[in-house]
Amino acid sequence: MIRIYSDSDSSVAVDLSLLYQPMERLSAGLLIQDVFETEFEVYGQKLSYIRNVRPSFSYQPTDSLIFAVSIYDFTDELDRQVSFGSEIELTQLTGLEILNSEEEKLYVRGGAYLGNLTLGAGYEYGAFGFDYAFLGENLGDTHQFGLTYKFAGI
User: Fold this and answer.
1) What residues form DSSP beta bridges with 110?
2) For 116-147, how does the pLDDT look when each residue is reduced to its tens digit (9 = 90+)?
3) Do 59 and 79 form a contact (C-beta atoms < 8 A)?
């Protein structure tokens, strides 16, 4: 006999992020995931999301290069880790154009996230953007894709 178990619950979790730019090429950010440590129930067991505080900094030494560092779990409730990475804008650096337009930008990214190698690329054309990221090693070769649209005036 096959038994199928299912359970459901609903909850609302809140994340908060702040960005501060003290100088033109230096930025500081703060992400607080699960601000209220939301509780939920699964198969009669009460669980909660653990708050994760993540400060970060970035520095842009040139118009085409950015370095960033972030601390995952600053309060050490999970397992504090330092992540870092960099991004190079190839269109500005090399003059490379895919659609022969000054509106397009092509990026290459690399770094480490929770001790795992990360690689990625991004393409922007006007208000639209497409991003790809690869997270390797103990994350099981994860592939992430993103699509962005920037509204006018924002």
Assistant:
1) 86, 119
2) 889 999 999 888 999 999 988 765 788 999 99
3) no
The total of other beta-carbon atoms located within 10 Å of residue 4's CB is 4
Query: What tokens appear for 58 in the block?
Result: 């970035």
Determine the pLDDT at residue 37. Answer: 77
53: which 2 tokens?
A: 């505080």
Does residue 149 carry a pLDDT above 80? yes
Residues, the chain, total?
154
Position 154 scores a pLDDT of 55
